[in-house]
Amino acid sequence: MDPSSNPLDGLRVAVTGGTSGLGLALVEQLHRAGAQVALVARDASRVAAVARRFAGTHGIAADVSSKPSTHPLAIQINSALGGLDVLINNASTLGPVTLLPLADTECEDFEAALATNLVGPFRLTKALLGALALSARQGRPALVVNITSDAAANAYPGWGAYGASKAALSHMSRIWDEELREHGVRMLAHDPGDMDTPLHAQALPDADPAMLKMPTLAAAELLARIARMVQSDEVSA
Prior knowledge:
- The chain is built from seven helices and six strands; from the N terminus they run E-H-E-H-E-H-E-H-E-H-E-H-H.
- By secondary structure, the protein is α/β, with parallel strands linked by helices.
- It has one domain: Rossmann fold (3-Layer(aba) Sandwich).
- Strands 3-2-1-4-5-6 form a six-stranded parallel beta sheet, with helices on both faces.
- Strand 4, helix 4 and strand 5 form a beta-alpha-beta unit.
- The longest helix has 31 residues.
- The protein is globular.
């Protein structure tokens, strides 16, 4: 791959949570940049609509929190893209809505947040490591981006399930980056900032959208970071 002119052109990228918010903005901008994109989300009709909107993208309806879905999803991603260079684990859930103190959080809601925000990315990344390692051996980028949050580092009352899951995701990313670096696979935890997204509106319906970052800007910032890593050979063998 020659990333000298446009490092995103030709990249094979999978984006979970790809039908709204940051995920949708990433799909649009990656498509525009010439990347090959597979988008994943639970709602089959919304997945199909986004895939039709951006011709040539591959829509896959799947729930990343479901263990039985993991390997079929990994196979579909590999088949659709002919391999994988970048996995963006973006799908997230808040846990309980409205937000609750941890003492009032149901165990099932806490487990659901972990399943989507932490265990799902772990399983899907593990299932796709072979494809990513192959990309690295071929001299292509091999990168996993886990979308995290400042709630991973700051103790916000009411955000316990979400914050705990994102804190674990961030630390898991750092550990995996150390373990996989020698194999040419890199792991990045990325905090896009507070965005005007459906997820944020769920959590704080009274928030002023004017005070929040637009998902299009957050997507552009993340893709610029990925492009810099590709150009500097941080994510290629």
